[in-house]
């Protein structure tokens, strides 16, 4: 009996902690499996709750500590900020999108495409190709058929994407309400949750505060910088489209959405618009729009985006570019948020590691690059 009690005491002193850690890891793994379908909504809600935390704290103070009511006001404010502009923009997009589709259809029905392919430009183009690229048989090139195929394919894809968007409207609405539900509870209980996580963490308090501050700063900079870049590029694109006579609201918004795609984003919108103007015979407007989008819109993407996203994140434009591009290729559109968050977290952990093991690291490793 005495030996049995001694064995049990030895187990509880030496074996219980590894066992608890094993069970904890398994429980966390199972919890991740449960939360994984809502991971995007959870991360976005965390970012929004952190972004509006000053508003929530101010409202909580004004409402005499009623955090639930303050969090509800924050959710309503976010809904107002998102839904009202989205409704106005969507209404303008639908109207001008229908007008654009009607104009293209009318142009094709009136024989605009046939007139273009049978014009003097076609003969001049064929003569130029025959003179400079003699190994290409121009007569075998079915220019009319290829252009019609391109127009037909583009129209089918546009309609398919529109149908998919309508079909996914219920899913988008559901995800939006899930995100707002999470924002409510994270705004109300986020401070207590962070305090609990910090109590369980083995890191020192100043290290924990630095990690939280860095991740919050990166998230705020990425979200606000991306939105500001999209708005600026959308406005600049809309101005260019309005000058050349293309429906500005619809294509400006489309260009703003496309700006979230790294490297080639806005070109997916303005290059087809330039091609459309060229097909219509408006060469001056086509050249102007190409220069406008390449110089004005492109400069916003190349110079303003890194500056706007740098913000409080303390990340160089080079790292921001790598984070956006790598995140997009790894996670898709979600990677535009995940990439900078992951890289920012890794950088602050490297800084903490450097400070923690400064005495063991060689002196050369602690010198900044370029010195």
Descriptive account of the structure:
The chain has 371 residues and is mostly helical. It has a domain at 204-371. Helices cover 82% and strands 0% of the residues. It is built from 15 helices and no strands. Helix 10 runs antiparallel to helix 13, helix 11 (248-258) runs antiparallel to helix 12 and helix 13 crosses helix 14 (317-331). It is elongated, with a radius of gyration of 28 Å.
Question: What topology does this entry show?
Answer:
Elements lengths: L1 H13 L1 H20 L3 H13 L1 H10 L4 H43 L2 H6 L2 H13 L10 H25 L1 H32 L4 H40 L3 H11 L8 H13 L3 H28 L6 H15 L3 H22 L15
Helix pairs in contact: 3-9, 3-10, 4-5, 5-9, 5-11, 10-11, 10-13, 10-15, 11-12, 12-13, 13-14, 14-15
Give a nutshell description of this structure.
By secondary structure, the protein is an all-alpha fold.
Tertiary shape: elongated
- Average pLDDT confidence is 74
How would a textbook summarize the main sheet?
Answer: none
- Note poorly predicted spans: none
The fraction of residues in strands falls at under 5%
Helix-strand pattern: HHHHHHHHHHHHHHH
- Percent range for helical residues? over 70%
Put simply, the count of helices is 15
Alpha-beta classification = mainly alpha
Instruction: For the record, give the distance between the C-alpha atoms at the N and C termini, rounded to a whole number.
Output: 70 Å
Radius of gyration, in angstroms, nearest whole number = 28 Å
Please give the number of β-strands. Answer: 0
Features:
371 residues, mainly alpha, 15 helices
């Amino acid at each position: 009996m005495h030996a049995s009690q001694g064995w049990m005491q030895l187990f509880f002193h030496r074996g219980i902690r590894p066992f608890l850690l094993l069970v904890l890891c398994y429980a966390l793994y199972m919890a991740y499996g449960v939360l994984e379908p809502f991971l995007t909504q959870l991360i976005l809600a965390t970012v929004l709750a952190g972004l509006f935390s000053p508003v929530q704290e101010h409202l909580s103070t004004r409402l005499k500590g009623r955090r639930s009511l303050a969090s509800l006001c924050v959710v309503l404010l976010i809904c107002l900020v998102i839904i009202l502009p989205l409704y106005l923009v969507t209404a303008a997009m639908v109207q001008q999108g229908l007008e654009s589709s009607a104009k293209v259809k009318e142009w094709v029905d009136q024989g605009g495409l046939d007139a273009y392919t049978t014009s003097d430009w076609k003969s001049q183009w064929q003569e130029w190709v025959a003179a400079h690229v003699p190994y290409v048989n121009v007569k075998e090139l079915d220019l009319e058929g290829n252009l019609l195929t391109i127009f037909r394919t583009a129209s089918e894809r546009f309609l398919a994407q529109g149908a998919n968007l309508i079909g996914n409207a219920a899913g988008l609405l559901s995800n939006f309400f899930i995100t707002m539900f999470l924002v409510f509870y994270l705004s109300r209980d986020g401070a207590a949750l962070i305090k609990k996580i910090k109590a369980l963490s083995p890191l020192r308090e100043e290290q924990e505060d630095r990690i939280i501050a860095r991740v919050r700063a990166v998230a705020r900079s990425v979200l606000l910088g991306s939105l500001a870049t999209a708005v600026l590029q959308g406005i600049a694109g809309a101005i260019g489209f309005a000058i050349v006579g293309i429906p500005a609201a619809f294509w400006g918004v489309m260009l703003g959405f496309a700006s979230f795609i790294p490297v080639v984003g806005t070109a997916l919108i303005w290059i087809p618009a330039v091609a459309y103007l060229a097909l219509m015979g408006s060469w001056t407007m086509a050249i102007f729009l190409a220069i406008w989008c390449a110089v004005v819109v492109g400069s916003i993407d190349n110079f303003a985006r890194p500056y706007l996203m740098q913000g409080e994140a303390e990340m160089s434009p080079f790292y921001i570019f790598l984070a956006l591009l790598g995140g997009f290729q790894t996670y898709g559109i979600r990677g535009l948020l995940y990439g900078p968050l992951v890289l920012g977290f890794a950088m602050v952990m490297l800084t903490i590691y450097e400070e923690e093991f400064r005495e063991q690291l060689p002196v050369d490793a602690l010198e900044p690059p370029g010195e």
